Predict the 3D structure of the following.
Amino acid sequence: MTPQTFHVLAVCTGNICRSRIAELALAQRFADVSEIRLRSAGTRAASGWLIPEEVREIAGYMGVEEIRTRRTKQVSEQALGDADLVLVMTRDHRREVVELNPRIVRRTFTIRELAGLAAVTRDADIISEGGGPSADRAARLRAAVGAAARRRSRRRSPKQVTVDDVIDPYGCDRDTYARSALQLAPAVEGVAALFQRALNLGEGE
């Protein structure tokens, strides 16, 4: 972590579908915000895995103009420690990465969980975490994560334990890819909305 930069690490299992799309969708959304840096990794990334055509279709559905072919990356303790926000796709991923680096527990969320918390996190909450208009962009973004973490501590556990998860479509039929996309797309939008609100707190200063 560096003071003037806000690092986001998206994590899924293979770093082929869910985390890759989340990384690229958010990177494209905030391409003009130099402080936001996006990366992705997998808890069990394997070299040589190909990106299925269905993944490209999901990416297109979410407005991602290009899904680059690159080597999958295995998540590491160092990469987790460098991140200001770790966005995982399931509660199992959260458990795995927190076991790997316990220091990240407060800044690690499933992407659907954070999207839900964003909806109830107020601007006043972000400001109280140090994200006021006089703070720089990276500080406001970190404050938004801190505010969401405080909201999580007051959140009731969901009745359905999988409600915070984005299902893994890899190797499944197109209906499963579609279901995964319908879970991931609004979650990305919810997280993006939280980022944008934090950034907007400094406009006009």
